[in-house]
Amino acid sequence: MPSQIVTLTLNGAERELIARPSMTLLTALRETFGLTGAKRGCAQGGCGSCTVLLDGRPVVSCLVPVVTVDGSSVETIEGQADGERLSDVQQAFVDGFATQCGFCTPGMIMSATALLDRNPDPTRQDVIEAICGNVCRCTGYEPIINAVLDAARRRRQAASDSEEREPAGAER
Predict the structure, then answer these.
(1) In what helix (H) or strand (E) does residue 158 lie, and over which residues does it extend?
(2) Residue 47 pLDDT level (bands cut at 50, 70, 90)
(3) What share of the chain is helix, strand, coil (3-state, %, to 5)?
(4) Tens digits of residue pLDDT in 92-123
């Protein structure tokens, strides 16, 4: 099969690449776009270190042929921070000491972000299920689970604070 042009929205910006049929999304992110946050771990979809969001859903990018993402939206760990300001999930990981070596952290954060985007008030079991495809050999998972629950609390508090600042009778 010949190479093809793939257009995608990458961290909010439209991007193009010429993709070989065998190229994975992970390879495109790392080698074409220079986004090295998603890690090449097992290269078999079992460790979750390459997790990114594809149209809002967490996927292991090492198994996704890049030609299949034409027209899709891809979010990586590099797109989570707003300049120097970390996302709520990233900040909760820092504050909760939920990282050690850091190899799994980008994938964990992306899985957690997807969970909180669809479920703002997860239970501990919801968090465990959301990160079950992400392997961490350092933390023992407790700090990670607690950080995700803390990020959820922070998001709910920020939403509540935002509603309180909105003037009465303002249209939503």
Answers:
(1) helix 142-165
(2) very high
(3) 40, 15, 40
(4) 999 999 999 999 999 999 999 999 999 999 99
Q: Is residue 67 part of a domain?
A: yes
Residue 17 lies in a domain: yes
Q: What's the half-sphere exposure (Cβ side, CA atoms, 13 Å) at 14?
A: 3
Give the closest residue to 41 by CA, choosing from 20, 24, 54: 24
E strand residue ranges, the chain: 4-10, 13-19, 51-54, 57-60, 73-75
Q: What is the CATH classification number for the domain harbouring 130?
A: 1.10.150.120
- How would you class 133 by CB atoms within 10 Å of its CB: exposed for 0-12, middle for 13-18, buried for 19 or more? middle
pLDDT tens for 59-81 read 999 999 999 999 999 999 999 99
Domain boundary among 79, 105, 137: 79
